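User: What would this chain look like folded?
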Amino acid sequence: MAAVPIAERNQDATIYVGGLDEQVSESSLWELFLQAGPVVNVHMPKDRVTMSHQGYGFVEFLEEDDADYAIKIMNMIKLYGKPTRVNKASSHQKNLDIGANIFIGNLDPEVDEKLLYDTFSAFGVILQTPKIMRDPDSGNSKGFAFINFGSFDSSDAAIEAMNGQYLCNRAITISYAFKKEAKGERHGSAAERLLATQNPLAQADRPHQLFADAPAPPTDGTMGLPGMPGGPPPGAPPMSMPPPSGPGMSVMHPPLGAFPPPGQWLLCLSV
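Assistant: Here's the prediction, encoded as structure tokens.
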């Protein structure tokens, strides 16, 4: 389970697992995700001082289909009481890149990828693991990062809510990132937003937001259960009336689906 250089990983078959409890180990992650398919490598970046992991890791599968399956069945399952977040930066997600890319500046050196993911995933789907620009020799943060959202609604909300907010004792600055292919032009243009509305893959990747309404109350006089008429049986007190009670007496409710004889309540003496 030694770390494999990023350049040698099959990125399309590699998933990001975040929100991990400190008790989770590489071996436990291996055993868990082995249920989804053959695992090639597991890597959990560790703090250079404490040597404890930083709450996230990467699992590489033998096949891309296994990684996709793992995301479907493992996302938000609980490990040691904490829900995990599982996603993948793959060629499919690159096709979902609509340009909702934001730049985050003035980052504190203590801010890592996990903190950014945990903070900004509240605004919507993040297509790839947040990218903090680091010094290639020391690995230290250069103080800025990029996040790629799956929709402009998410990126707009993140900019509006988080620009100027403090993250690890520093006020961060957030804006749309500059385009690589067009110098001086930022993402988030009207043209990109128009193209995003016409991208069927981006539409399909949105979170599920359609929930069934509660069933309408029955209008045929029944309580919704087969063979059970609506309302109490003839002679029984109205449902709004409390049952008779007195000192030393308590109510014994009949079994579900059964009713007491007409005009009577089942009573028992309390011991």
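The first strand starts at residue 14 and ends at 18. If you want, I can go into more detail on any region.
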